[in-house]
């Protein structure tokens, strides 16, 4: 067989192996396989390009560039390495950033050798931010965390490193170291505090009852009581809330309500006062109108009375002047005259007529009235004798008054009788009429007392 | 247990961009074909 073909076949075999590993992110394995492929055939451009790509994937950009440059030199045209190089050249800033990250990484190695772990950690954190695919930075950072016993941070760094290269020996070794350290921690002997913490009541309780051994779960008072405590807390909380509402909120609400009510009451009171004032003013106005109208009415009545008086006076005068008259009829007309409503001349005429007519009229009517009294015709007696008393109260030295009073008394009107009989005593004391009047008054009084006792 | 110092020594400085030219020149491109040629030339 042609050795050339065999060599090429071997190169391709290792290239394929490298490709498989690169696909599953086994970068370290891929690098080994691809280098072997290139050892068989340095002209395996595909293997070289893939090798550069694997280096690039681990953050070793310069190593990648070396492979691609060599690849381009070996095959200037139709080479994928050309596009890779153009891509990197176009992002000059990105390349500069990566270059600075690499320089810082190299500086961190110097810090570490000079016991400057803290500075190195700070720088490496920045590097992992600016160049997140730089595997070596994560690995160095993990080493420093392990050295400074920051195991959680070491775990984080190693996790990221493993994502970049799954089978990297350094990463796996550090992870194993971390596992061992954590395992040792878990297996530490119990100290007193741990023993105390772990001291628990047994979950089961055993005791013998006769020939039998009884095993039952431990009575967990705490769990049972926990539920009750929860309920109690809820009830207590509700009670406190209700108390707060009752003592703080309800009075405030009531106060605001009562304020509102008071304001309404005040407002209504003011309205009532104003309405009362208005009513009072209106009433006063009405009263004044009434008074005015009363005055007016009185004036009207007075005017009517005056007119009537004058008419009666004229009638009486005409009858008197005619010569054919009866004294008692003219006396009736004159009794209807209001002397005060007459003027001066009218009053003179009135006085003339009365002085001429009344004496005769009194005589006639007194006689008629007494006759009516004697026959117990009290109504007629009262009517007639009242006219006599109006014309002349003193007629017959109070006889008219006396008879009138007795007529009223006998007619069942003791009150009016008392008036007339008392008048007799006043005008004509120490007379027979007065004596008779007194007797009658005493009878009236005794009759009244008897009625009261009954 | 990891030896910090020993592990640290395993970390070599990474190539910087300025080192590309040197790295390219230093790259050993000898492959199997070249070795076979050398062997055949020696036999001659």
Please, could you describe this protein's structure?
The complex is a heterodimer of chains A (454) and B (44). Chain A has 454 residues and is an all-alpha fold. Among the domains of chain A are: 3-186, Tetratricopeptide repeat domain (Serine Threonine Protein Phosphatase 5, Tetratricopeptide repeat, Alpha Horseshoe); 358-453, Alpha Horseshoe (Serine Threonine Protein Phosphatase 5, Tetratricopeptide repeat). In chain A, 80% of the residues lie in helices and 3% in strands. Chain A is built from 18 helices and 2 strands. Chain A has helices spanning 3-23, 27-40, 45-57, 61-74, 80-90, 92-113, 117-130, 135-147, 151-164, 169-186, 192-198, 221-322, 327-335, 344-374, 378-391, 399-410, 414-427, 432-453, and strands at residues 204-209, 212-217. Chain A has a two-stranded antiparallel ribbon. In chain A, helix 16 packs antiparallel against helix 17 (414-427) and helix 17 (414-427) packs antiparallel against helix 18. The longest helix of chain A is centred in the middle third of the chain and has 102 residues, at 221-322. Chain A is rod-shaped and about 200 Å long. The mean pLDDT of chain A is 87. Chain B has helices spanning 4-9, 20-26, 32-43. Chain B has 44 residues and is mainly alpha-helical. The radius of gyration of chain B is 19 Å and the shape is elongated. Chain B has 3 helices and no strands. The longest helix of chain B is centred in the last third of the chain and has 12 residues, at 32-43. The A-B interface holds A 3-4, 7, 10-11, 38-43, 60, 62-63, 65-66, 69-70, 95, 98-99, 102-103, 105-106, 109, 112-113, 136, 139-140, 143, 146-147, 170, 173-174, 177, 180 and B 1-2, 4, 7-8, 10-11, 13-17, 19-20, 23-24, 27, 29-34, 36.
């Amino acid at each position: 067989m042609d050795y050339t073909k065999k060599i090429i076949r071997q190169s391709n075999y290792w290239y394929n192996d490298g490709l498989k590993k690169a696909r599953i992110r086994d970068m370290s394995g891929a690098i080994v396989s691809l280098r072997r492929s290139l050892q068989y055939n340095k002209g395996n451009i595909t293997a070289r390009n893939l090798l550069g790509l694997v280096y690039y994937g681990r953050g070793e950009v310069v190593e990648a560039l070396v492979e691609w440059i060599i690849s381009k030199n070996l095959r200037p045209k139709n080479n994928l390495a050309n596009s890779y190089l153009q891509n990197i050249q176009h992002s000059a800033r990105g390349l500069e950033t990566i270059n600075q990250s690499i320089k810082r990484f190299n500086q961190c190695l110097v810090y570490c050798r000079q016991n400057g772990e803290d500075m190195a950690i700070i720088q490496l954190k920045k590097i992992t931010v600016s160049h997140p695919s730089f595997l070596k930075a994560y690995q160095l950072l993990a080493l420093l965390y392990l050295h400074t016993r920051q195991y959680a941070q070491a775990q984080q760094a190693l996790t990221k490193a493993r994502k970049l290269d799954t089978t990297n020996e350094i990463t796996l070794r550090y992870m194993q170291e971390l596992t061992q350290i954590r395992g040792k921690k878990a297996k530490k002997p119990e100290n007193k505090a741990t023993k105390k913490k772990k001291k628990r009541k047994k979950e089961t309780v055993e005791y013998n009852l006769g020939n039998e051994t009884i095993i039952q779960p431990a009575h967990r008072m705490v769990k049972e009581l926990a539920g009750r405590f929860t309920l109690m807390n809820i009830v207590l909380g509700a009670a406190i809330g209700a108390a707060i509402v009752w003592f703080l909120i309800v009075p405030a609400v009531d106060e605001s309500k009562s304020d509102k009510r008071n304001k309404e009451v005040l407002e209504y009171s003011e309205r009532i006062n104003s309405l009362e004032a208005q009513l009072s003013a209106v009433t006063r106005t009405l009263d004044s109108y009434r008074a005015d109208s009363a005055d007016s009415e009185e004036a009207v009545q007075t005017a009517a009375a005056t007119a009537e008086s004058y008419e009666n006076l004229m009638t009486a005068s005409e009858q008197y002047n005619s010569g054919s008259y009866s004294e008692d009829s003219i006396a009736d007309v004159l009794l209807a005259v209001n002397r005060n409503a007459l003027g001066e001349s009218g009053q003179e005429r009135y006085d003339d007529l009365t002085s001429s007519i009344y004496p005769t009229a009194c005589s006639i009517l007194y006689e008629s009235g007494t006759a009516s009294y004697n026959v117990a015709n009290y109504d007629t007696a009262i009517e007639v004798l009242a006219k006599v008393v109006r014309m002349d109260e003193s007629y017959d030295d109070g006889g008219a008054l006396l008879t009138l009073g007795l007529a009223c008394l006998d007619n069942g009107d003791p009150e009016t009788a008392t008036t007339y009989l008392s008048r007799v005593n006043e005008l004509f004391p120490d007379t027979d009429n007065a004596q008779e009047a007194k007797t009658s008054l005493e009878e009236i009084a005794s009759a009244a007392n008897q009625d009261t006792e009954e | 247990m990891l030896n910090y110092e020993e592990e640290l020594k395993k970390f070599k400085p990474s190539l910087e961009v300025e080192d590309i030219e040197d790295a390219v020149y230093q790259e050993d491109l000898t492959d199997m074909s070249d070795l076979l040629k050398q062997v055949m030339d020696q036999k001659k």
